[in-house]
Amino acid sequence: MTKKILILHTGGTISMSEDKTGKVKPNEKNPLTSLTLSNQANLELITEEIFNLPSPHMDPDHMLQLSLRLRQAQAEGFFGAVITHGTDTLEETAMFLDLTLDSKMPVAITGAMRSSNEIGSDGLYNFRSAVMVASSPESVNKGVVVVMNDEIHAARFVTKTHTTNVATFRTPTFGPIGIISDGHVAYVQNTIARQCLPLTNIVNNIYLIKAYAGMDGTLLAALDSEATKGIVIEALGAGNLPPQTLPALKKLLQRQIPIILVSRCFNGIAEPVYDYEGGGVNLQKMGITFCRGLNGPKARIKLLVGLSAGLSGEKLAHYINA
Ligand code: ASP
Known about the structure:
By secondary structure, the protein is an alpha/beta fold. It has eight helices and 16 strands. The strands form four sheets. It has an eight-stranded mixed beta sheet with strand order 4-1-5-6-7-8-11-12. The protein is globular, with a radius of gyration of 20 Å. Aspartic acid binds at residues 12-13, 54-55, 86-88, 111, 113.
């Protein structure tokens, strides 16, 4: 039986070309749309160029449009979907879709580190791998996955780790959930249960701040406004902050602004361990919510999804750690 796969192109290096001076630029026509894959037997690929954006131009409203299109695709009987995307913000779109799609339909996101006409271009290869993943019965109910460089990563933990290397996407702490080997898809881990919140609108003004040695309250004070809806802080180590930030944090909490804490460490999880001024135990007692295992950009997307779904207080805190 022929499987229908929806291809949504959104732009990024995978759709760009290098000019004679070595600068990489968007094309009017996506070069992937004129290519034929060698493994298309029994697949019907239906292509839509939903956006043509470098991924630093991607925002949560674009992500919502993608989510709504994918929800519709499942109702239309598609077996799976592939999204091509710039790699800079790919992990945030993947996270958003994973949190807002409650379907079992395979969704594979891919991109490229080298544009379409560069030597060693990885775009077509990654695209073909993503089609294999999206059409595999093994991918059903795995959530949204990122497919790059012969690896399959869960949207929740994958991150871009290198500015230019084709092996840029990694899952610190937990590793990839599968590989593409010898032309087939092999999963080695299951994904954990997800709580999905289908959205129809986006709450904006949710900020991400990184802590550093000697940090004071200046940046936090700049967010002390009614317009601020939420803040994620990439804290130090297991989840600690310099004591000079505390007065500004207290003011933000008095305004009932949710503050979520993750670690700026690349590996591991943030937890309230230290009981000193600015230590995690102290921060949790003040009303700051720890978010275990997510990096800053992903925790920000999760907070955005929770707030956009109308969650607050205890329910929001529970969702952040679900
Ligand atoms: N700057 C590009 C983008 O994210 C990088 C890429 O696609 O790899 O659109």
